[in-house]
Please model this.
Amino acid sequence: MNTNRSKKCWPGKLLMATMMLAAGLAQAQQHAEHGAHQHGKASLTFVLDGNEAELVLSTAAANIVGFEHKASTDAERQQQQQQLEMLKSGSWFMLATAANCSISGQNFREEQGDANHADLYVDFQILCQAPLKLSDISFSLFSQSPALESLNVQYLVNGEAGVAELTAKNAVLKLIR
Model:
C-alpha cells in the first residue's frame, strides 16, 4: 500500500467518514431522545478509512439483555452482566481473518429512559494490518441475543458507501470492493 497516497487522501476520507458516523450517531441519539427505539432491531455503522475502522452499534437493551427494567433478581443481574460483557468484548463480530484486524479501543454507554426503556451504544476502534483484504464482517450477535431480529447497517469503506439489513439467516456483511 502506498502510504504517501493514503496520507494525502486522509483528511478528505476522514471528513467523509466522520460525517457518516455523525449522521448515524445523530439518528441514534434522536431515536433515544424521542423514545423511538425498536425492539428486535438494532443499527450499526461501519467505516473503514485506510487501515483504521470504527464500528458503532446502537440498540434497545431488550435486544441484548432480554429486558430493559433495572435488574431485580440475581438471575437478571447475572444475565445482564453476561450479555453486557459479551457486547463490550466485541466477540459478537468477526472481521475477515485475512485483514488481520484488532480492536484498539472501545466506548460503551447505557442510557436509561423511563423505567421500561433503555438503550445501549458501543463503539469500537479497529486497526487492520491488511485492510484491502477486509471483504466481510460476520455477526454472531443474533445467536447470542435471540431477541434481536434485524441489524440495519450503514457502511463506508474507503469512500464507497452501502447499506444492508442483516438477520440471523443472513448475518454476513459483504463489503464493497
Remarks:
- The chain has a mean pLDDT of 82.
- The helical segments are 3-33, 61-65, 74-89, 141-144.
- Strands lie at 41-49, 52-60, 93-95, 101-112, 118-128, 136-139, 150-157, 160-166, 172-174.
